[in-house]
Amino acid sequence: MLLISCPWCGPRDETEFHCGGEAHIARPLDPPALPDAAWAGYVFMRDNPKGWMRERWMHAQGCRRWFNLVRHTVTHEIAGAYLVGAPLPPLPDECP
Amino acid sequence: MSGYRLPAGGRVDRDRPLAFTFDGRRFTGFQGDTLASALIASGERLVARSFKYHRPRGVYSAGAEEPNALVQLGAGARSEPNLRATQIELHDGLVAAAVNAWPGLRFDLGAANQLVAPLLAAGFYYKTFLGPRGWWRRFYEPAIRRMAGMGRAPTLPDPDLYDHMHIHADVLVVGGGPAGLAAARAAASGGARVVLAEDGPLLGAGLVDDDATVDGVPGIAWADEVAADLAGRDTVTVLRRTTVAGLYDHGYAVAVERRTDHLPPGAAPGHARQRLWHIRARRTVLAAGAHERPLVFPGNDRPGVMLAGAVRTYLRRYGVACGRRAVVFTGDDAAYATAAALADAGVAVAAVVDPRRDAPDAAALAARGIAVLPGHAVIAADGKGGVESVLVAALDGSGDGQARRIGCDLLAVSGGWSPVVHLYSQLRGRLAYDDRLACFRPAGSVAGVTVAGAADGRFDLAACLAAGHEAGLAAAVATGFPAVAAAPRTSAQPPALPPAMLWDRPPAGRGKAFVDLQNDVTTDDVALAAREGFTAIEHLKRYTTTGMGTDQGKTANVNAIGVLSGVLGRSPGETGTTTFRPPYTPVAYGALAGRFVGELFDPERVTPIHPRHVEAEAVFENVGQWKRPRFFPHPGEDLEGAVLRECRAVREGVGAMDASTLGKIEVRGPDAAAFLDRIYINPMAGLAVGACRYGVMCREDGMVFDDGVVLRLAPDRFLVTTTTGGAARVLDWFEEWLQTEWPGLRVFCTSVTEQWATVAVAGPLARAVVGALAPEMELGAADFPFMTFRDGIVAGMAARVARISFSGELAFELNVESTAGLALWDAVLAAGRRHGIVPYGTEAMHVLRAEKGYFIVGHETDGTVTPIDLGLERMVAKRKDFLGKRSLGRSDTVRTDRKQLVALLPEDPEELLPEGAQLVDDPKAPAPVPMVGHVTSSYRSAALGRSFALALVRDGRQRIGGRVFAPAGAHVVAARIADPVLFDPGGSRRDG
């Protein structure tokens, strides 16, 4: 079970959280203008990387706030959490 | 008789004899015994029958790795199956029985299975017992399951208490042997919070098996000193009788502490029997030790064949000799100490057989009159019931080439040691095969975890102490504590020679040579599996069942890997291991459940009116966590009778329903209207204050997600109702969009479900009832039109009254503060008495709404249904965007042959279609019959005077008037497709 540091509440057990999958999927501004394939890409298609990933999590049994987390999908290592709307942190393997 | 109690020695209390019963016979042991040690001391060799062939088996080990001596412990509700006799601490009055013997342990009819062994080879269930058709299920499987039994699960509720505990530590040390003690001592010395978990009742108990000193005192005395030091520190938690069953990410471990199992049942009232510990540690030291391995040769499963280390443990820890005349067969140095210990205890040692040509220590043993046979192997263990003799031969055919027979009743074997890598491997730690030590060792790194001592392949005491100490110090320093303790010193010497395995040249004797004792898997099975292509170790495991069962191959796995590799001519490292998964040893469900049983299993939510429903003897149903009255039966009335009566009352008179469970969310803020416009498929921004509007919401894929009525309380304030089961989901949905996608919208949402109590008053006489309660309120259809609400006084209480109808009848929803709910319900029933008011439940509500063609989310929808499929085209807003709108124009959602909501009228009006039934056009069509839809709801209707159903039917709206068929049990029901609104299609009744 992961130990996740909520930016508002501090480290808590994974069971208190709800995972919302890949982060930074922006809702298209003008859906009617999109062809089917582009809309399907937004609704259905998600990255499933083996390695570092930015994810959305919600502290369901705590502050109920959504935030973003950088997690390694193989080792479950967590590089850090950041707030919705904050600048994108680089992934650890992107660091110079 | 074979084993016996030595006149002195062992850590048992000879002044405290304990009486116990095994397999119906009475025995005596001592305080400090395990069930296994007491049985051996009593001369019992036969303690179990094997899984498949029902061969006689004896105690094989002295710990968690025991493959044979599984027992059913206790009786009645406390009966527990498949426990290892080697780990059961004896207590007075203990009752145990063998698990797989019928009619009895000594005369077991199942032993006849050995005669048909060729039929039971690896993968036999894929090959034999196949025909005639149907016999597998009716005869073979039940018979095989009966024969291949393990213990029986108790059928009565567990009378014991179980607790969950949570603890945070700087350092978790798993294992209280020499390495674990050294680690805990070092880690704790600087003040770190340390948790030490030890499987057994004593710390360092294994040191009694060893003659070496530590820090100048006997090892066991050193262990006692460390235990006292740890006990004196309030930063240290020592958990004895505690098995760490699983190790997970980020330092999380789950352990089971057995607190009362060593006491007679009921001896510790008020104490939880077991505790499940949730441990979160910053650093973990794994010092779980190693399991000794069997050697594989014909007859290696006979009672009297035991692990050499276990033989020494029984001698030194329990004062028990496992036989009277022993042969030691070992490819490893450690068993030489067993030979010496046996001789010390006065047991005759006939020979030490060592396949290695340059056996160590031969001179020392020879000086004591013990013959050492280097370059030799035991090629068979023979005897009826148990070992009576062994056949020993030179491996290179030297000597006279003849095997020689040596009489013995005990054969102590050692095939080297397998590090207990289970927890490390559970955490994806990489293993590599060590050719020199013939074992799999940790070879990678796992964040925060250090493996120390025998678990790391360091099998001698000096190395274990040093590694444990270093790991403990490093863990302390890594968590910010000083390194204080000095390393323990020992007189122990490292082993001289690496062990030898015989996997690639199996002894050539006759008879079954077992690789897995618990699952009765032989070398022949492994070879057969390899011939049939099951050469990957995971395939071998599944095909032969080796490494399965309650011991998960603790003694078997490496031998199976070795034998398979020998057959295929490759190294065990190339073969690799199977994956280790939690739990390390079986965990009782009671411990996992903890206190979350009975009414604490899941919260139960009840409305403020609930006590009246209980008094009225309502039949309840669960809706999410809510208890809702399903119907209110009169004496002698069944579901159908009650529901027809309740429905008739609402259609012809007046009924009252507790609707308090509907989800309610207040949505407030300057942008609330704009927000709801994006959420609902229909426009909400234009809703007038004081008005209500029914709304439907979709997910982004265009599928219906929830529905409900929206009330506009003020320009910037809405009350949203949701389905009973969907309230939490919908609030989460709102929050997700507000927080992640539209943080600019100034809106906040508050759940008010439990702040309100709601009573729906429905039926042609509803106005009269509400009028009597709210004389100040204008209730006429012109003053108080449908889909509006008013705040006012009802029955003397502040109330919000809404004209909302889910039945198609004139209806008022009365909302009051939840504390006033009970008084409101009483007032409604009192005022309605002279109108014959009838309380109705969810079942009548379902029938009434279905007659009107109103869908219910989760009944008519299943996440694949769009608003268009439900016939809601006219609700879908044209001029705004909303969640899911774009998906309603996808190629799949615009298909005209999608399943659409329709009603079904069975051609026999008495016939009820089964809910969930698949619908077909031609029931006589050859299989597979194309399915065109399914029944979503099905009822008898008082108003229609017949049965009816709602269904999703492919292209259903175009097929109104046509026929479909539903298989209903043995026969087929024909039904007409109809418009979903069957009752009052003009909607004239809702204004009364």
Describe this structure in words.
The complex is a heterodimer of chains A (96) and B (992). Chain A is built from 1 helix and 6 strands, in the order βββαβββ. Chain A has 96 residues and is mainly beta. In chain A, a hairpin with a 3-residue loop joins strand 1 and strand 2. With 992 residues, chain B is of the alpha+beta class. The model of chain B has no long low-confidence stretch (mean pLDDT 93). In chain B, the strands form 14 sheets. In chain B, strands 9, 10, 13, 14, 15, 16 and 30 form a 7-stranded mixed β-sheet that branches. A 6-stranded mixed β-sheet of chain B has the order 42-43-44-41-35-45. The longest helix of chain B has 18 residues, at 461-478. Chain B contains 22 helices and 51 strands.
Question: Radius of gyration of chain A, rounded?
Answer: 15 Å
Strand order across the largest sheet of chain A: 3-4-5-6
> What structural class is derived from the secondary structure elements of chain B?
alpha+beta
**How many individual helices of chain B?**
22
Strand content of chain B: 25-35%
What count of domains describes the coordinates of chain A? Answer: 1
Amino-to-carboxy terminus distance of chain A: 31 Å
User: What's the helical proportion of residues of chain B?
Assistant: 10-25%
Q: Kindly state the mean pLDDT of chain A as a whole number?
A: 94
* H-E order of chain A: EEEHEEE
Topology:
The complex is a heterodimer of chains A (96) and B (992).
Chain A: E1 3-6, E2 10-13, E3 18-22, H1 36-43, E4 52-58, E5 66-72, E6 78-83
Antiparallel strand pairs in A: 1-2, 3-4, 4-5, 5-6
Chain B: E1 4-5, E2 13-22, E3 25-31, H1 35-41, E4 48-49, E5 56-57, E6 70-73, E7 80-84, E8 94-98, H2 124-127, H3 135-147, E9 162-174, H4 178-189, E10 194-197, E11 213-214, E12 217-218, H5 219-231, E13 236-239, E14 242-248, E15 252-258, E16 274-286, E17 290-292, E18 305-307, H6 308-318, E19 320-321, E20 325-330, H7 334-344, E21 348-354, H8 362-367, E22 372-374, E23 376-382, E24 389-394, E25 404-407, E26 410-414, E27 417-419, H9 422-426, E28 431-434, E29 439-442, E30 449-451, H10 461-478, E31 514-516, E32 521-522, H11 523-531, H12 537-544, H13 557-568, H14 572-575, H15 589-593, H16 610-615, E33 619-623, E34 626-631, H17 639-652, E35 655-658, E36 663-668, H18 672-679, E37 692-698, E38 704-714, E39 717-722, H19 727-741, E40 748-751, E41 756-762, H20 766-773, E42 789-794, E43 797-802, E44 811-817, H21 821-832, E45 838-839, H22 842-851, E46 899-906, E47 918-920, E48 931-941, E49 946-954, E50 963-968, E51 971-978
Parallel strand pairs in B: 2-8, 9-10, 9-16, 10-13, 16-30, 18-26, 20-21, 20-26, 21-22, 35-45
Antiparallel strand pairs in B: 1-19, 2-3, 4-5, 6-7, 6-8, 11-12, 14-15, 15-16, 17-27, 23-24, 24-25, 28-29, 31-32, 33-34, 35-41, 36-39, 36-40, 37-38, 38-39, 41-44, 42-43, 43-44, 46-49, 46-51, 47-48, 48-49, 50-51
Helix pairs in contact in B: 4-5, 4-10, 6-7, 11-13, 17-22, 20-21
